[in-house]
Amino acid sequence: MGKVAQNKQQKREALLNTAFKLFTTKGLHNTSIADIVEQAGVAKGTFYLYFKDKYDINNKLMVHRSTELFDAAMERLHEKGLTGYREKLLFIVDDIITSLAENKLLLMFISKNLGLGFYHFTMENEQIVEYPSIHDAYQELVQDTEGQISDPKLMLYMIIELVGSSIYSSILYSQPVDIETLKPYLYKSINAIIDQFLP
Fold first, then answer.
1. What is the number of other CB atoms lying within 10 angstroms of the CB of residue 7?
2. pLDDT digits (tens, 9 = 90+) for 34-75
3. How far, in Å, CA of 83 to CA of 66, rounded?
4. Is pLDDT above 80 for 82?
5. Residue with more model confidence, 165 or 131
6. What sign results for the dihedral spanned by CA atoms 100, 16, 122, 138?
7. Cα dihedral sign for 167, 170, 175, 181?
8. Whole-number pLDDT of residue 109
9. Which of the two ends of the chain, N or C, has the fewest CB atoms closer than 10 A to its terminal CB?
């Protein structure tokens, strides 16, 4: 990567990191673009090179942070050497739950929209260019199910949505039960979703 490209990436990362800090402390509605650029130490015009408005950076930040979770989970998955798609999916889910339980601020930011980050990689769009590793990982999971699952993209989306909506209150408030109590039931539900997509 050249110096110009590296400088651009650093500025974009600074904007994303600053926005995350502000959104999780002040809230989206109480944070202005001026707040973000001032704390990031970049010109206001630089912000508009990468983002349309604060809602755009919020959405891209959600995708960015979700992608980091999936990317880290896939790295650890490859270290395990698991082969079956069920085992792989459950490992990834468990890894993501563990990461979010350890980073409650991130969980609160992503809230119940965990599927948003993953959904971007089911389609041909600019996110694939930005995050090639997670797109490749997604394709790997889909290929694992070829000939066995009728619609692997929809199946994966439903699983991620289920996980995202189920774990939030369980991790933060132990409601209706704590996360360790919830996990066995959640994993049974995931297996039931997989079964629905079998021919």
1. 11
2. 999 999 999 999 999 999 999 999 988 888 888 888 889 888
3. 24
4. yes
5. 165
6. negative
7. positive
8. 87
9. C
